[in-house]
Amino acid sequence: MLSARLLRRQLLSSARRPPAALRQLHAAPKEKLFDKILVANRGEIAVRVMRTCKKLGIKTVAVYSEPDVNSVAVRMADEAVCVGPAPSSQSYLSIPKIVEAVKATGAQAVHPGYGFLSENKDFCEALEAIGVAFIGPGHEAIQAMGDKIESKQLAMDAGVNTIPGFLGEIDTPDEAVKVAQEIGYPVMIKASAGGGGKGMRVAYNDEEVRMGYRLSKEEAASSFGDDRMFLEKFIEDPRHIEIQLIADSHGNVVALPERECSIQRRNQKVIEEAPSVLLDPETRLAMGKQAAMLARKVGYVSAGTVEFLCDKHKNFYFLEMNTRLQVEHPVTELISKVDLVEQMIRVAAGHELPKELVEGPVKIHGWAMESRVYAEDPLRGFLPSIGRLLQYEEPAHLPGVRVDSGVNEGSDISMFYDPMISKLITYGKDRSECLARMKTALDNYVIRGPGNNVAFLQDVYRHPRFVSGKITTKFIEEEYPDGFDGVKLTAPEVEDLRVVGTIMHLKKTRASSQISGRIQSTPAEGFGSFDSLNGDELEFVSDQAGVVPRLRAIAPGLSSQELIALAEHNDLKNLGAQLSVSIDGPFGESKPVVVVEIEVENKRHRTETVTLALVDNKWHVVGNVDWSLNGPLFKASYAKQDGAADQPLASQMLQTLPEGFRLQFHGAVHDVVVRNELEAAYGKHMQPKPEVDTSNLLLCPMPGMLISVAVEVGQYVELGQELAVVEAMKMQNVLRSEKRGVIKSIGRAAGDSLKVDEVILDESAVYKLHTDSSCSSSPTIIGFQESPPPSCSAITTCSSVNIDGEKLYWDRACASDTYDDLSAAAYGEKPYVLMEIYESGQECKKLLSGAAFLADGSCLVTDNGASSMKVSLYADGSATFLTYRGTSCSGTVVKSTKVTKASISSHSCENGALKFYSGSATTATTATTTDGSDKTISTTTSQSPCSFESSVHLTVAITATLALATTLY
């Protein structure tokens, strides 16, 4: 039921002012608009729409689900209405509840934002039925463009370039395979009602089509309530470029400059920029013209986006049209100086677009980039993360930076909605300046609580290929084929990190000394004066706490490079404090750092302390340090001994360690430990703590619902095999095995709700022993072994075989007794025998080719009972005989004999005797040995003698059969 209580809220003082870039856009004309607008959305887009409404003097109404009661959007709105519980289907997607909220508040118009009901024709019609304006296109255009099959046909009719494909609806996986084969691989499987990267899969073969069809269909049904599917040719290595349109009801259609959205992961946009590096003016004009042709074809009104795929030759093809405001609209606003939300409101009120837009062309002003900051874990396959924002500081104060968000410190990122935290947008006069500002903004963006993708974004922006602009939609797939494993700092950046950790250590140590009253700064005796290079003196100041030597400059206004020259001239490296700084904890790489401090007078005629640190014989100068003890963000100005000007420096402290800090620097996380020389010497004798091994467990990487489990207890699984499917944020995520293994246990069932790191199943890593693959197209698996037993060096415990180039092991105690059955399954009616042994009065035991263990593990006893023997035969053709005193095959090994493959090529058993086939001998030979105490061998031979010796009484027959040997090995 709709809450009858309307929450009237005044805009809190904490609400952020509109970004400067938007304040420069077209001022709202003095014309009749709406008195009150309901924003049918949540999060950052709701806040974004309300900002423009506030600028235009329009009151706003927020709708919210129960978990969003304290959201920024609710506090910002003039009124707020609860529309239901957390699930979107019962709140933000409930047309009756939204319509009731409109009626109850008297709103004259509704802005849908993006997502949810923004492209729902039924919602549009419901508002039209009660005389309320929908700030967006009419329901006819929504319906036409929302159906991907129909929209493609309309684009073709309008003369827009389209991708070859099958326009009909595909009902079964088999039909999908047939169509894919006709079109030619690769193909794109798409949901007709899809969008936002959902319900889409690329397939390169029949098997991928079947799986992709199933997953996309399920995803589409869950996300859109419409599981119709179609296929089209997948354009390889394309760029995703789109044209922003704005059209009014007076026949005016304006195409704004393009934006590029090629940096995508799983068809979900990650980074956008405007304009595109690829396009020239002619291509830009042609794309805008075709986009406008399509808009006119469907009678489009309001803001919309026509998306194209563009190849390296600048050929472009229609992808789809989004009948709403796009997530990435800010980059277009910044380079065109058009407030798109304002124009949507004006158009919905019946006004014409501004004359300067209609007469065009719209000029491009500078460059803009947008980063989608998500609550997800890039190190775990970008799986969604949830939780409370424990610390949250946006870098909106930096020049050229805009942050669109709907959260603040204390906000919860819920499993029920899209995991986007914010959109970080930067603007510059050109791409280079824009990119530099983005890197700085990301360095200064503090997010604690749920996992986030800031480090991954920083890594992308550092990538040479991105910097050069040579990107495609496969950029992430190609540059991160094995996923993201963290930012790798360059050697100079590691030096910078050592300096940051050193300065933080000094500040912390000095603060502790001040608290204890142990610190004083007084002129020191015995050091004399220092030459400042300009005739003035430098006074040496001694810290009683012994933190670090300090100089006081008499002459003010020394630049960073002048300070470095001063340090070199006075040989300060022999005066400074000697520290040892380790990266990656006390057991990481350690380097000496020499530190001195100089008190100088800055431009404001105030005294500040500048730190000089010598790392790898290079001075680094750090000033203007802004860091509160244990605060999350360290900021400073920075210069190196290379003549460059001062640069901003930022690092984030994630955790205080006993001897240092865990820092995030340019996205890379490292433990920095700072010690004096004595502490470093003692630290070398410490041992690291062992880590808990969870490698055998399949842990849920995100909160969500377990949709299916694809394996059973006891089942062997290969590397990459599907284990389970977890749904989160309406996306189905397939969890695959990261190794060969056997399923030991399954702890959860389909339909269960899962938390992060909750155990789904236990998969033990195993080695697989199987039959010789040369003898069968489907080798029979004869057993599994988790790991080589500790005593594998003793043949009595285990044996080994070579399978697929690996040394694999088998525990004899687990050996199956059904060797004949296994043999028959692998080789049909003529099993090949690898080895047979005997004991007086006992039948021969048969071992299957490829197995490497003693038949049933029995102990062979000599005829006289004085000794016993175990025999191990390896699949590489070698054998080992171990002889023991006594009859139990235990205790001291009195003799160990190894027989090489060169001596034994094949084996057989005849008349109850162990036989080895070897060499080219054609006549049987008998060899007799004495017991173990004698260690001698007597041989009778007709052609070639036995090439091994044993201390057990047995008979050996040697005969030639090279063909069999070839089969066995």
TrEMBL record:
Can you state which reaction this protein catalyses?
propanoyl-CoA + hydrogencarbonate + ATP = (S)-methylmalonyl-CoA + ADP + phosphate + H(+)
Q: Name one GO biological process term.
A: lipid catabolic process
Pathway per the UniProt entry? Metabolic intermediate metabolism; propanoyl-CoA degradation; succinyl-CoA from propanoyl-CoA: step 1/3
**E.C. number(s) listed in UniProt:** 6.4.1.3
Return one GO MF term: ATP binding
Entry GO CC: mitochondrion
Q: Record's Pfam families?
A: Biotin_carb_C, Biotin_carb_N, Biotin_lipoyl, CPSase_L_D2, PCC_BT
Keyword Coiled coil applies: no
Segments forming domain ATP-grasp? 152-349
* PROSITE patterns for this protein: ATP_GRASP, BC, BIOTIN, BIOTINYL_LIPOYL, CPSASE_1, CPSASE_2
Domain named Biotin carboxylation: residues: 33-481
Task: Kindly provide the name given to this protein in its UniProt entry.
Answer: propionyl-CoA carboxylase
What organism does the record attribute this protein to? Phytophthora cactorum
